[in-house]
Structure formats: C-alpha cells, structure tokens
Amino acid sequence: MTDTVLISLKKVSKIHNEGRPNEVQAVVGIDLDIARGKVTVLRGASGSGKTTLLTVIGCLARPSSGRVALDGRDISGMPERFLTRIRQETFGFVFQGFNLLRGMSALDNIMLPAYPQAPPHRWLRRRALDLLSMLRLEHRADTPVEMLSGGEAQRTAIARALVNDPPILIADEPTANLDTALTREFLGIAETLKAQGKTLILTSHDPRVFEAGMVDHVVTLRDGRVEERR
Amino acid sequence: MNHFFARHLYLVDFTVASLGRRRGRNLGLFAVYVLLVFVLASVSLMTHGLRREAQAILESSPEIVVQRMIAGRNDPVPTGAVAAITGIRGVRAVQGRLWGYYYDAGMRANYTLMVPPDRPVESGAVVIGGGIARLRQLDTGDIVHFMAPDGRIVRFTVSGTLDSASELVSADLVLMNEGDFRAFFGFPADRFTDVVASVRNPREVGTVASKIALALPEARVVTRADMLRTYEALFDWRGGMVAVVLSGAVLAFVILAWDKAAGLSADERREIGVLKAIGWETSDVIAVKFWEGALVSLLAFLAGYVLAYGHVFYFSGALFEPALKGWAILYPRFRLVPEINGQQVATIFFFTVVPYTLATIFPIWRAATIDPDTVMR
Amino acid sequence: MNKHLRLSTTSLSVLAVALAAALATLVDAALRFDSEALARRNRAALAETLQLSDLSLFTEARYTRHPALADLHSAFQDHPAALDHFPSAAWMPPTRWHEKQP
C-alpha cells in the first residue's frame, strides 16, 4: 500500500555537533512511515529526539545517515536549494513558541512564506485574510504579533503555515502553552484540516493531544529510538 | 509583471517593514547619513564653484605683475620701471598700478582702494563695490568719509556703484582717481604699487618674466601661471583640511553603519532561521539585506545631494558663510554658476553609498550558514 | 484601487521622487547655466578691465585679500597671531603671546 505512505524513513540517524566533544546522538536508526491524510503524533519526553525527527521529516535538516523519501522520491541527499523548494511547497510549520516575526502585523506574518514565489499581491492578501477569517482572527489582521494573545498567536502561526497550501502540516508541541479551552480549539482546527485532506505531523507529550479521537498514529520515542507505535 | 520583479517587490515590502520596526533608530541613522552626504556634497560643489570663479578671473588677470622687494618686503615700484619694462622685447603693454588697502575702523572692515585703469573718476568722487554699499548703506550721490593715514578726514561723493552681480570680485572695491589716491595715502608721485605687463606671444610669458627679473634685480615677477598655482594650492589645502576634518566624521559614520549593519543580533539570526524554515532561500535573505543597504543609502545620498545643490546654488552655501567669512565684516553676495562635477559626485557616492551597502550585505554570508532547523532547537 | 498601499510601492515611489529631484538639479543647472555663466563672464570682464586677480571673498586681513599676489615667504606678516594660508599654520599655531599682555 505504498500509495498511502507519504513520507518514509529508513534507518535514519541524526547526530548533532558531529565530531565535536558535545556530540549528541539525537535520533538513532529510525524506520518510520507517515501515512497520507492521517494525523501522526510523535510522542515522548523532552530529549527523546522527537523534535529532531520532526526537523528531518520536515526537510529542515538532513539526516546524518539513512534515507528519507517523500512521495517515493529520495530527498535525503538533495542540496539545500531543493530542500528549500520542497519546504516551501510541501510543508507548513507551526513552531513551538510560534516564531512569528515581531513588529510586523499578523497579516504580514501570514503572507511571508509566499514572498519568494511572488503570487499576485492582491490574491495573496485575499488568501491571508481568508485564512484569518477561517480561524476567526480577521479583526486582528493589522495587529502587531506581539500584541496577540497566546491563542491568537497560535492561530496566526497556523495561518502562516497554511498560506502556501501545503499538503503536510508540521506542528512542534502545539499545545505546550495552551489551556484546556485553547487546546480543544487547536484540536478542532486540526480536525478541520484533516478533513480537508491534509497530513498532520505533531510532536507532543500532552495526553490531550495524543489521546484525541482524530489522531491516527502515535509513535512513542525514547532516547532517539522508537519505543512503541500504534 | 514578470516573476523577478514581483519577487523583488515582495522583498522590498519585507525590507521596509523590517526597517520600520526600529523606526527611531533607523530614522536617526538615516538623518545622520543625509547630513553627512549633505555636508560632503556642499563642500564639494562649493569649492568647485569657487575654484571655477577664481580660474575665470585669473584667466583674464594680468599676465605679469612686477612687484618690488626690499629686504623681502613689498615696496612701491619707481615709475621708471615702466619704461624699463616697456623696452624689453616681447612686451606689448606696461602699466603702473595704484592700489592699496584701507581699514575702516568704524566698520572694522578692510576695503581695497584702487585707481581704475579703464575709467575716469572725478576728483572727490568714488565708485564703490556692492559690499561696501550694503555695509555703509550708501547709494549714488551719498557722501562718505575716509580717514587718511595722517589723520585727515577726507570727504568723497559716491558717484556710482559696481554691478551687484560682480560682488564676488568687487565687493570691497573703492575706485578713485590717481590724484585723490596719491593725496589720500600720501603716496609718492614717483611710485606705483606695482606694474602689470602683457606680452605679445602668450607662450613667451616665461621668457619675458625672466628678462624682467634680469633687468630689474630687486623685482619679484609674478606670472599668471604662478597665481594659478597659488590658487590651486590654496583651494587644495583648504579643501584638504576640510577633508581631514570630515574624514573623522566619515570614519565615525562608517563605524556606526558597520555596527548597525554588520552586527547580526541574536534576534536577526533567529529571524533568518525562521525565514529559511518557512521556505525562503538564502538568496532571498541576501536580497533583503541588499535592498536594506541600497534603499537607505541611495535615498540618503539623493536627499543629501539635492539639499546640497539647493544650499550651494540657491542659498550660496549660507551654512559655510561663517567659515568663509572668518573675521571679515565684508562678505560678497554671490551666486555660483551651477556646474556639477560628475567626478566629485561620483566620489561622494562611492564613499557613502558603497561602504554602507557592503557593510549591510557582508555579514549575510555568515547568515547564509544559519541552518533552518535552528528555530526548532 | 487597493486602499492598502504596499510598502514597496511607497518606498520605491519615494526613491523615484528623490531620483527625479536629483535629475531635476541637472536640468535646473542646465537652465540656469547660461545666465549664471554670463554673469561670470561679466565678472571676468570687470576683473580684466580693473586688472583684478582675486575673489573678494577673504577681506578679513590685508594679506588674505589677494592670495595670488601674497608674499609667499613671510608668514604672519601682518599679525603675529594671524593664521597664514599655508598648511603649516594649521598644524602649529602661532604663539598667542599678545593675549598675556594686560
């Protein structure tokens, strides 16, 4: 059933600071398939390697060894330019802490990932506003991001991740700073996106996330290895 | 619209939004930048304009001036020198000049009194330059009193003023006839202040000058070429002093710009990481930095230059007036001929725009090595 | 019309205006050149008839009025504290002895 496998990892290892005294084996020999259109949660305590694995899956970093295939195409040996193109077209990122650019409005932040492709400005603006209204944030469009509440900032970050309409959405610890209501709201958004056919990959050690009904797969990591999958 | 322009318009959007975030700081830097270009360009345009004026005047000044030296000091020339010089081969015309300086103690101003070689002035009358007319509020028909060296108060009637457009050469002139001049200063009847000579063949000025020096051993012979050299040296060293003073300002600015532009703060590094993570290429990040440098420095250069142009050619370099005027009371009103020296403008451009843009882009080569996954750590 | 002006539109317009102003100075210079150059020719003509050799810019002291005819070899010729117009004077100023006099 390869057509349901979107991303496939074979014996992927990632070593930080390779060859230096502070060398860390963050991820060791992981085999993993990510299913298309499903919600996958990478679960584990901090230091378990789940964020590192997410960077490898999201083409933010190349594995130290092993292979990563996207849609059956090996991307682990590609030069940075191609990885950038793939990130741009394929992945939307919601970072832990959101990493919105301070001093700029929510709308500007959302439009940023599309700048290098330079779509018609009016179209892009419309698209960003549509995303904001889908996330019930249209009234905050011109607000500088540092003035947004935690929930608003997260929805802005989600809108930014969606602006290029990527098939895959990656979120690192999306509920780390959210209360129960906001967590529920996030899960609601995630469910909507799943219904739209997006593949979601999340990291979390929050039971409210990995026990949620819409989650299809949970991969538990410990010390850089897969401990359990369901 | 093609993709290249569309993409760069977006990058400019980002650049300007990014600059707007530290508005006070960036505007301050921009103001300093504009001021620096303004001062440099003003000095450059002004000295160039004045130099051209001096050249235009020197080109029509006497070919040879003969002074007499006694113990290394200037001394009036005996009238007999005129005949002696006239006899030298190659000399076309010789004329003794009478001119000198007069200190107006009431106004604390120096005037140049002279006997005009070209026009008759009635006895008891003076023709005055525009600067004096303005300073003493004199007009044709008014009476002016000068105090002679022996203490007499001498009364003159202003019979005319010199064209105000010529103030740059004539602001402090007082023209009177020979009798009045000699009587006023008690100037010996058998002496001239100096003697001017013209030659038949301009290429023989040097030869004729050495012949004069040979015939009159006590004479100092100044040729037009000497005067030109003196003026070149004068403007060069004054300009050089200004350059030395300004180079401190330029260096300070370079340090400021370098500090502002070159230092990538932790925030900026993080931001570049974010941009790369969300799909920006390294070249996009570099283009943003290029736009930052180019927009700021081009705009500052253009604004500074336009202000300098207005300052020099519409306001006669009013801000430099105190420096040029020095302790003088008389200062001519003048309008310089607007000649823009491309080389000077290019020099200012090179010394202001290029370093800033480079200082902005340079550190980005280091930024290019920032991995996109830094944002996840 | 899009009521939201893009920053790039605004900033590049400002740049274009500045560029136009800079080019306008060239046009202005060309327009004024003839009349100003005529005025300069008139100044030069006056200088020729009066046998002048210097600009009347520096009237602060007798010896600064005519740099072209100045006595090149005697600095401080008229006043011990006066700056002569040689570079050396800029590096080492004359002794200001006169200020100590009562």
UniProtKB/TrEMBL annotation, chain A:
GO terms for cellular component: plasma membrane. Residues 7-230 form the ABC transporter domain. It comes from the Bacteria. InterPro entries: AAA+_ATPase, ABC_transporter-like_ATP-bd, ABC_transpr_LolD-like, MacB-like_ATP-bd, P-loop_NTPase. The lineage of its organism: Bacteria, Pseudomonadati, Pseudomonadota, Alphaproteobacteria, Rhodospirillales. Keywords: ATP-binding, Nucleotide-binding, Transport. This is ABC transporter ATP-binding protein. CDD domains: ABC_MJ0796_LolCDE_FtsE. One of its GO terms (molecular function) is ATP hydrolysis activity. Pfam families: ABC_tran.
TrEMBL record, chain B:
The keyword Signal does not apply. It is a multi-pass membrane protein. InterPro entries: ABC3_permease_C, Lipoprotein-release_system. Keywords: Cell membrane, Membrane, Transmembrane, Transmembrane helix. Residues 266-372 form the ABC3 transporter permease C-terminal domain. GO terms for biological process: lipoprotein localization to outer membrane. One of its GO terms (cellular component) is plasma membrane protein complex. The chain crosses the membrane at residues 27-46, 237-258, 298-324, 345-365. It is found in: Cell membrane. The keyword Lipid biosynthesis does not apply. Belongs to the ABC-4 integral membrane protein family. LolC/E subfamily. This is FtsX-like permease family protein. It comes from Magnetospirillum aberrantis SpK.
TrEMBL record, chain C:
This is Uncharacterized protein. It comes from Magnetospirillum aberrantis SpK. The lineage of its organism: Bacteria, Pseudomonadati, Pseudomonadota, Alphaproteobacteria, Rhodospirillales.
